[in-house]
Amino acid sequence: MATFVDHVTLHLRAGNGGSGCVSVKREKFKPLAGPDGGNGGSGGDLVLVADPGTTTLLGYHRSPHRSSDNGGPGMGDHRNGHNGEIRELMVPIGTVVKDAEGNMILDMNEPGLRLVVGPGGQGGLGNAALASTKRKAPGFALLGTLGFEGSVYLELKTLADVALVGYPSAGKSSLIAAMSAAKPKIAEYPFTTLHPNLGVVESGDSRYTMADVPGLIEGASEGKGLGLEFLRHVERCTALLHVLDCATLEPGRDPLSDLDVILGELAAYPVPEGQKPLLERTQLVALNKIDVPEGRELAGFVKADLETRGYRVFEISTVTHEGLRQLSYALAEIVEQGRVETAAAEARKPRIVMRPKAVDDGGFSVRVEGGSFGNIYRILGAKPERWIQQTDFTNEEAIGFLADRLAKLGVENELYKAGAIAGSTVIIGPGHGVVFDWEPTLTSTAELITAPRGTDTRLDDSKRRTSNERREEYFGRMDAKASARAEMIREREAGMWRTDEEEQNEDVRASGKNSEDDGSTKED
C-alpha cells in the first residue's frame, strides 16, 4: 500500500451562489410597503494552504474529489442567505499547482501561503437591492452564479538543502539515518528506498535538511528505474552529495564509472526555466563503506582522481560514523553560503508594479466568427458571462434589466463597430453560450444608419421626384383605370356579369311571366 505520493490530480467543485429573493413587504394598512427580498449567499471557496505539518499528498490520492458548500438563497423581510463555508486543503510546502493544461499557477514554497484554487459562486441580489428611483418595485431578482468546477494538478518537490544521489544500495539511506533522526527503510537489496526521505541535520550553529532520493541507474532520465519519478525532488537542493559505493561486488562497477553514469543522468534531466542546471550546483563526493578493508583501499586509489576533477572528497563509513563530522561541517558551510546568495537574489528581484486598468477597457471583447448563415458575433468577458448566469430568462423584466446592463457596459457600441446589424446572431460566452438575435436599443434615428463612415444612406434612398415624373405617374394611373373600365363594359355586354339593378329587374320579369301562366290555366 502506498505511503508516499508526490503528484496527484485534484477534482474540485466549489459551492454555487444562492439566488436572490423576490418579495414585497405586506403589513396591516400597508398592502404594498416596498420590496424586501434579501440577497443570496456566496458559495464556499476551495483554498490550498501550505502546511509545514503535511509531508505527502497521499490523502488527495485516496480521495481526489473535493467540494465546498453552496450559498443559501435570500428570503423575505430583508433576510440574506448564508455564505458557504470556506474549505481549506492542506498541502506540503513545495507543492507546485498547475492547471488542467499543465501551466503553473503557483509554487507554494512558503509556510502559510494560501491560494484560492476554486472560487465559489457569487450570490444574486434580491429585489430590494435592485430597487431604484426608476424601478421602485422590481419583480425579479438575480440568480446565483456557479462555482468553479474543474481539475488541478499538484506536484510535490521536496524543499531540501542537500540531496543524496547515487546508485541503489550505495548507502544513502544509512547515511541520512546516521547524520539525522530520520529512520528510513534499510535493507540488503537494491531499490529499498521507494520515496524520498527527509532528515534534519544539526552541525554546530547550522541546521539544514537532507533528502535521500531513490537510487539512480543508467537511463534514469529516460524512465528506467525510479530515478525519473523522483528527480524532481533534487531541483530545489543547494548542493548534491554523490554517495559512491567502494565495496560493491557487482562486476564492471567502480566509484569512477558510477559517478560518470550519475552525472550523465543529472545532465539529461531538464530543470524548470529560471533554475540553475543540476550539474552547475555545488557537488561533493562521499566514498562510503571504508569500514570494509577492500573499500578503504579502493577509496584511497580513486580519491586523487576525484580531487583532480575538482570535487571535495570525504571518506566515510555509515557503520562506524568515520568521517561524518567533517562531511557535516562541509555541507553546513555550503548551505549557509547558498542561503546568503539566495537572500541577495531575493533582494534584487524586480518590484511588482500594479497598473490600473485602462479607461477604455470595458472588460469584454467582441469576436466575429463565420457561420453558415452569416457572421456570428461572440461576446467574451467576465462581466457579460456572469450577468448571463444571473438572469432569469423566464422573466421579461429580468431580460430588460440585462439589456440595460449590457448597453451601459458598451456592448452595443462594440457590436455596431464590428459590423453587426439588427437581427444579427450574438452569442455571449464561450462554446455554445447563450444565443440572441440582436435588437439594438434605439435612442435616436441616427442609430438606424449602417452606412460606412462619411456616408449617409438617407441621402441615397430619399430621391425627390420631378414634376414630369409625377405627371407621368398620374397619367399612367388614369390610363390604367380607363382600360379597366373598358374591360368591365365588354364583359358586361358579353353577359359575363350583371349589376344588382339588372338582376332585380330580371327577377321581376320572371315573376310576372309566371303569374300570367297561372291565370290562363284557371280560365280553362
Automatic annotation (TrEMBL):
GO terms for molecular function: GTP binding; GTPase activity; magnesium ion binding. Its EC number is 3.6.5.-. It is an enzyme of class 3 (hydrolase). The keyword Transport does not apply. Keywords: Cytoplasm, GTP-binding, Hydrolase, Magnesium, Metal-binding, Nucleotide-binding. GTP binds at residues 166-173, 191-195, 212-215, 288-291, 317-319. It holds the Pfam family MMR_HSR1. Belongs to the TRAFAC class OBG-HflX-like GTPase superfamily. OBG GTPase family. This is GTPase Obg. The lineage of its organism: Bacteria, Bacillati, Actinomycetota, Actinomycetes, Micrococcales. The gene is obgE.
